[in-house]
Amino acid sequence: MPLRDINDLEKLKKINAALVSRVERSMDQQGNAFSLFQTAISLENRVRTRTEELHSTLRRLEQSNIDLSAAKETAELANLSKTRFLAAASHDVLQPLNAAHLSVSALAELQTSDEGKKLVRQVERSLETMEDLLRTLLDISKLDAGVVQPDIGDVSLETLFSSLRSDFLPVAEMKGLTLKFRPVNAVVRSDRTLLRRILQNILSNALRYTRSGGVLVGTRHRGDTIRIDVADTGCGIPADQREAVFEEFHRGGTALTDTGLSGGGLGLGLAIVRRMAAALGHPVTFSSKVGRGTIFHIDVPVGIGATSDTVAGTTDMERPRGYGLFGTKVLLVENDADVLQAMTSLLERWQCVVRAATSTDDALDMLGDTDWVPDIVIADQHLDGGDLGTATIAEVRDYLGRPVPALIVTADASEIVAKAARADGIELMRKPLKPAQLRALLAHLLA
Asked: What's the superkingdom here (predicted)?
């Protein structure tokens, strides 16, 4: 029906309302579509912005990784450089320290008064402290740099314990303490030198912080491992210090006040223990009660058989105590003037006849007199002109036509020198020398 033919007002209103409603719905739909369009554009812009931010973050992260990698490489190189520097510096420092040890030893034999002997002993203790600190700092540096490669093999605990007993029994007796090692017939898989150093440091701490009673060392089989226990009746370790004791330069507060010792150590012993144990893969734990004592535990894999170091250790224990060096002819090859003078003075105090040289050529020149044939050759490893002591000894033996006993005395702690000496049947001692040990070894070689 045409709109003009509708006369009913109410009907017209309804038609108008319907038309208005339809128009509004149409406009709402268009509005919604436009709104969705705007939302889509906004979202696209947001996605683009976030994508750019993400790419920027990834680029920064990549650059940070590159910077971190470069910094890590620089730090590793610096660490290795530090280790090489300390190794070189320690060699240079150990030379005059060795000369001082030898000179003080010779001086001690000249003292007749109690006061003079006391002063000499004080100097000796100071030199020993310097040596311990230097060697320990070098060891920590090498362990942190990862340049220490353990030489794993079968180690006789009986031989190791015998050696430790010989070293520490006089210390225990001087303090009025007992030191006991339970008999053990066992072989473990470890690096003999590093394992001995671990036990040595733990024993040293045990004796240092024990006022009465003593220290007991024993073992227990635990499946495929052997647990080495070092138990003391000392002051104990408080619960709040159980991690701190493994930190550098941490010293127990009772070393001076409770035990009456003259020194509390360097605070580096257990720091070395943790690093060496980690290098060997030997877990180290302890239990402790304040005022009752401490037990350290070292878990070491069981070995597979007897080892040749049993023989070597027995030889060390059976060195004769009578020295008998009177008239011994010694060819001494040393390029450091101070060490040469100190060593010569010490040997002559022992009634040895010494001829000194600084290089291979000098040593051979000393043999020109056919009436003078050395009973033993003592040589530093690093000599003038790039000569090596092992090579010098080889040439001297070749010249003499016989395997004259020989000893390398060096501040070079590398395994290369030790292997070269062993290969040629040459004894090896590290600088700084302990005169009593040197004298005992010379007597053994000449026996």
From this structure: Bacteria
